[in-house]
Amino acid sequence: MCLATQFEKSRLDPGVQSPAVLSMERELQEMVDTFRLRIPQCLVLGSYAKGGPFVLETLMLYIAAEIFLSSDAEIEIWILMGNTVQLALHMGYHRDPKHFKGLSPFAAEMRRRIWATIVEMDLGLSAQMGLPRMIKHWQTDTQEPSNLQDSDFDSATVEMPPSRLNTDLTPILYRLVKARLMTTIGYIWDFSADVRPYPYTEVQKMDDKLDQARRSIPECLKWHSMARNITDSPQHIMQKVILETVFYRAKIVLHRKYMFLPLAQSASSRRIVLESALKLLDYQHMLQEETQPFCQLYQERWRVSSLVNHDFLLATSILCYYLQHAQGATAQLSESDSFDETIMASLKRSHDIWLQSSNSSKEARKVVRALAVVLGRVNTPSADSVGEAGLVFGLPSTSPPSTTNDYSQGGLGSQFPMFNSALMPNWATFADDLISAPMITPTADWQEMDGQSQYSS
User: Fold this and answer.
1) Cα dist from 61 to 47, 68, 268, 308, whole Å
2) For labelling alongside 282, which of 64, 138, 150, 289 has CA 20 to 30 A away?
3) pTM score above 0.85
4) From residue 306, how far is each of 205, 297, 420 by CA, in Å?
5) 53: domain range?
6) Is the distance from CB of 437 to CB of 396 less than 8 angstroms?
């Protein structure tokens, strides 16, 4: 027991660096480096642009590896995701396998699973970049995968068994539930990216659909509290948390453009946005605590990727923007003093978390600088403080955009020449503009507009 405890401590505690642990870490890093080098080489040698067996799976695995190894949003990954989407469309994955003769039940099920994953990755990366997604719901009729155990079918299966109930926690259930939730979130993302104005009733309809999608999550995947999840596996807990974070992110995306409009409904949207942002920062704090050595989620800490951190970045920027915007001439748009104090306390706690990752993340460093501005001057706002915070968070600026381009020589390798966002200093600001600022600007008479929205059908 003593030896087992010592081994576990050396394996979990980053402060204990025995020669054996250091050697194992070096070997793992060498494996990762080799993996990242060989995948694009194999793809190029295999003429991946022509499609073929396992091409999409390889690209998805490569993209996933880059996401988890990147501390910040990288436009190169999003562009590679675009190539993957185009290739999947070319190979017919957007059409249900029932349209293709000769496919075995196993192959059909695998195609559905691959397409569901591509749709999810497309939306996640597009949201991270603050840009419209590439796959639209009207372009595809591929059905969702079946809820089955891996032992329920194989390549020799002649007829697929019926899908299990949603109460049966299979390895694929989380992906199914998330895909259903992301379907509704996809509509919301399309809605927010639409340049046409819509009446506020459409926002309310979308909000109702989002709430309904959350209520439809099976009980086995619903989040309650960390105390109630004490007997769940770390992977199971992380799945519940991620479902929560994407839900609250969607709430912000749907309502953020109505936060400060001079309309009766803006107060409701503002409250929804602020409460959702606070919930996201609560999850940020919980993950920060529970992914420490010897805590319940330590083994799952790698799942807190740049995609997850982007949700926390969005929440932080929204709260900072609110505190800055609610001062001075627009003080009448402020919430209660106690609510503002809650926001301040949450941002102070978030500042400490961002500070810990600022050495490895450019985005974290930007957040730390902005929070220092907001937390230090929120009680004495000035044009300079608002401007400085706006520059850090990418709020509308009068500075002209940069037109400097270059090509990436890092991460994804020379096999995939792409624009390097690190060499485009104003690109991050432009992307943040799309994240922080409204994607559409309702006109003064938008409430009088007639007609139905395509998103409410």
Assistant:
1) 17, 11, 41, 18
2) 64
3) no
4) 30, 17, 17
5) 20-145
6) yes
